[in-house]
Structure formats: structure tokens, C-alpha cells
Amino acid sequence: MNLQSLAYILVGTFLMVGCFGMALVGLPARSGQVVPVSVRENPASFRPSYLLWTGWHAPASSDGGGFGFGK
Amino acid sequence: MLSSSCPSCGAPLWFRHAAAVAAVCENCRSTVVRGDADVLQVTGKASAFPRDLSPIVLGAHGTFGGRSFVVVGVVRKARERVRWNEWYCLFEDGGEGWLGEGNGQLQVYDAFVPVKGAPEKLRAGDTVKIAGKPWQVLECDEAVVAAADGELPYPATDGAPAPYADLRRGDGVTVATLDHDFDPPRLYTGKLVTLKELRLEPIRPISGWSDPDLKAAMTGPDLQGTRSLACPNCTAPLTLRALDAASIVCGHCGSVVALQDADPAGIIGKLPREQVQWKPPLPLGARAKLRDVGSADVIEWEIIGAMERAVRAGGERFAWTEHFLFNPYHGFRWLALDHGTRQWNLIERLPDLPTRPSLRFARHGGHSYKAFQQGVAQVERVLGEFTWEVRAGDTAQTVDFVDPPFMLSVETENNEQSASLGRWVDPDEIDEAFPDHEVRAPIGTAPNQPNPFDQTATQAVFAGATVMFALATMLLFVVQLGVCANEPLLSWQGPFGTGARSSDAFTVADTLRTSLQVSVTSSLSPEKAMVHVTLLNRTDGRAYHVDAGRTGGSDTLGRVTPGEYVAVVEGAVSPIFGQGVTGTVAVRVVRDPVRYGPILFAFLITALGPVWWFGGRQVFESRRWANSDF
After folding, report:
1. Are residues B27 and B48 in contact, defined by beta-carbon separation less than 8 angstroms?
2. Which end of chain A is more exposed for a tag (fewer CB within 10 A), N or C?
3. What ipTM describes this predicted complex?
4. To the nearest whole angstrom, how far is the Cα of A61 from the nearest Cα of chain B?
5. Chain B environment of A52 (Cβ under 8 Å)
6. What part of B 440-459 touches A (C-beta under 8 Å)?
């Protein structure tokens, strides 16, 4: 028997178990970012683009805090 | 039965069989012919048949094609230094035939037809039609009677010319001979056989040899398996292992000694000193059991000779050693070692020639072979004994065809063609067969080495694993359908705008399966606008960015925290092309969806099996054919 056939069984079984694991257990949890209470209460004040590009920053002077460029 | 006395010496003489026309007197060696009215007449003398050269004896009974026969006479014929025996057989149903014995092969000719106007001269290699059927001409020559014994269908006397033509069908089995000893000539037809198939009894045992299939039939005094000779040049002792050998090389002085009926018959050549000192990879006299070329029979062979041959091409020398093997009950074989790849072949001489439908193909015995290599092979070194007069420097044009694990070789030497069939021998088989000798591991691919991916076990494993993985893929799909909640949580649609909008709230329950599939669709052009979506958990404040492309797509979020969620949708437009962009954006959220990614991946694993098998097979074939001349 060719060793490569055994390799196919071993590698294939290993990957197939991974497929079952991924399907049944699911993807790893995403942590996300925690936003302040003000945003929770007024979601429309949230800027998803900021979350994508930069992230949350604390309020500074007049902008009231939030997500912004150049953190 | 006719009982009488020899007209020459008066010794008792019998004609036991009505079909016998002549008998050889055991006392005075006269050949006596029975004429009309049983009048006996001496036609000449015949030398005594050398009874120590063959295990077959007069009076032996055998079976062929369901018909019993008895061996009643024998004629030994000779041509140049080639000798063979023709045993005259009478069948119980009144038929007659011949059992040919020579060069390690047996043929039974059990039927004949008289052929009026049969051609006397045929050319070897031609195909001719005789008695309505096509035949290959293997050999056409004139032999002479060298000895005779017993009862015969014609008077055989020493030196009597015996023109003949050996014919073959080309199927590896069917044989014929055109015998001009009769008027009109007879076309005898028959088949290649083995002693085992003939069930001959009795046969002579040969000292030093045994065969489990023939043991029961062995009676009488042992034939000497070997014979001690003295070199006619230097008087060094020579051991003759095959009594049918035509030449033997003295390992002491390098003289090539011609043999005739196992006796020295002169010196026909001399090897240079450096060749005398040559030691083949396996020594002469070594014995080993090997599976035969065309059958599963495991036969014990003894190495009785060896020669090194080489082909030169493109400034390179490709050499191999051929060990000449012998078994007195099974004939001769070759065990060849290729020096370049260290691969082994067990080779059997074929009784006929293959057909050549084209230059690149040959057919024989129902198999088709592809041309692989060709060249002019030269004998460079030689040692031991052979059934022909071998000389260093002999050349032959060779063409090899392959159909793994077999290699069909056609050699042309002095306008005579011969063919042989080789079987690739696994190095482990050689290791096992010659445990006392170092067998070096192969370093290359043999032309007729079986592709490991074509082995039944390998194919079974690849096929079995592929089926198993296919079933697992289906199971994965079914299990997901059963286990996944696939619960729609949100289906929201709103107008596109550059500000942020939040959707209706939805709840992700506190369960183990909280992955979310978020699908975003819009009617927007990616060049003009962009949509950002975030799922916001209002309960714990976690925001999850959805990576769904510029204006639409899908993203699956791994397990998210439970709580009350909203989708926040924000639009952005290109400062150049985005003026006045309008449209709608829709967001759909499904909890614990059926995941097609793992199913697709499992399908790829399944498909990998056939791809791997095919690719591996092709790589091996590429390596094999990289060395081909065709």
C-alpha cells in the first residue's frame, strides 16, 4: 500500500474533524468593543465607520467623546 | 507387438507399437526399418542417446489435452552447437506426436497434417500461411541426427539431414514445426507445456534438486546434477551445472570452452585478464526461490552464468548485469540488475515473437506493450556457462516495450530475432531470496516498475477514504440542519443616508449557540457609496463591526454576548461621485445559521482524494517516461 494513501486518510480525517468542530461548536467568540452608556441609550449617535477605522476615544473638550479619526 | 531379432547383430528387437516404422537396436545401435510384410532392414547406425542429460525416459506415461500418451522413442538433433531432443509419443487413441525438449522449454506436438508443396526455405521473422493458417517463422534450418533410441516413425541414423522450420502463432503458447523428415512434409502443431502439466511418470530424479510437484513421479537412479570438467587450456576444475550448456567460461584462465553433451569440445575464445577477475553482483552457484515470470509458481533457481551488457547513448554508458538462472525441471531464466537504478527483473525467453502493429507498440499473449527504449547492447563481461556460445563483444539491437510489471524485449542479432518477457522484481523479494548477499536499495524508477498508485490496495484506500469523506460531508450537512437554530432575528430596511440609523431592537437569547449571520443588501453602487453596519448590544455595550463589503454582503459573527441588540447603519458617499446618491439598505440577522463553509471545506477534502491519486500517479509516470527513448 502506498504511504500517500495513508497520508490522505490521516490528513483528511484531521481536517474533517475540524470541519465538524467548526460546524458544531461554531466560530470563536468575537470580543467587540465596549461603548459608553450614552451610546447604548442613543444608538443613532454611534458612528460605525469610526469603529471600523479607529475606535472609541474618551470625550475631549467640546466633541463629547466618541469614535473619531487619529486616536 | 512384433518381436524379432536385429538383422545386424541378432540381438532381440521389438516393435511394440504398430505406428513405429523404425527401431534402434540397443546392442549394435543399428537403425532397423520395418518394411512391407514386417521385413526388417538395417538402414544405418545411430549413436546412443545420452541418458544422463534429461529427466525424461523411454516408457514414461503422460497426459496432454486429456489424452494419455507413452514415450516410445527419441531422436537427438544438432545444429552448430545447439542440441535438442525430440521424444516420439504414441497416444492411447492411436494418434502420434512429439515432445520437443530443448533450451529449457518443452513443446508437445499432438497433431499433424501433411503439407504438399510445403516451402523448403522460409525466412526467420516472416509470417507465412501454411495449411490455411498464418504462422511466424522462428527458425528455418537443417539439423542432423546426433543420436536416437527406441521406436521411431522414420529411420534415424547418425548425420542424417533433418531440415525443419519452427513456427509460432504469436500467442506465447501455440507452436508448430514443419518436419521434412516425412514425404510429404508434416506440419505438427501443439503447445508449450511444463513437466508438471504433462504429469509424466516416471521421470528421473536429479541429484541436488527437488520439486514438490514432480517428486511423486521420480523414480530410478539419480541423474548427476553437476559434472566436474577440466579446463582444456589450464586444467583448472570447472563445475558444469546445466548439462545442456553450450559453453562455459573458465574462471581461472578466461578460456571460453565449447561443450557438447556436457563434455568439452574445444576452446572457442579467451577473455582478457581483467574480465576474468570480474565478480557479478550475485555469485555463481547461489540459489534462490523466486516467483516465476508469468505464473505464481515459486521456483528455486541456481545462478550458473553472468554477463554484463551495456548500451552507449549520448556519450553515456547504461550497463546491467544478467545472471543466468537454471533449474533442471523448469529451464532457464535471467535475473537482471540495472546498474543505473539498481532495479531487478526476472526474465524468461519467449517461444515466439510479438506482433508490431506500429513502431511504438508490440502485442503478445493478449497484452499490449508501449515502446520504452532501444539501443545496441554489447556484452562486456561474461562468466560461467550458457546455452549458446557467448563471447565478450557480441552485440544485439534491443528494443524494450513495457506494460508494468512486465517488459517485453526484442533482440536482433545477426538478422535473427528473439524475444523475452521480464517481470519487475520487488527489491524486498530479492533481499528475501538472497539473504546472504548485500542487495543495495534502488535509486531510480524501473521502466516496468508498477505505479504504486495502481496497486489494488492503494486504489482501495484512496477510494475507501474518498467515499468515507463524502459520507462524512453529507452527515455534516444533515447534522447542521438538525442542530442549527437558523432563527431570523431582524429584517430591517431603510433609506440610505449619510447619518447613522438604528434598526428595530432584537434579542439574542442566552444560549450556547449565539453566532449571528448578518446580511446587508443595498441598491447602491460601490463606486459612489459605502455602508457601514455595526450590531450594538445595548445590554452590555458591546459593538460588533459587520464586515459585509462596501455596499452589501454577509458576515458571520462568532458567539456574541446575549442581550438586546440594534443594528446601526451608517452611509458614506464618495466626495467626487456620490452627490445625490439615494437608495435603500436592508439588514437581515439570523442566529445560529447553517454554515456552508465547513461543508464546502469537507467537500474539498473529499475531492482531494481523486486529485491526489491522479496527481501522484502522473508524477510517477512522468519520472518513468523521462528516461524513455520514445
Report:
1. no
2. C
3. 0.71
4. 23
5. 532, 545
6. 452-453, 455, 457-458
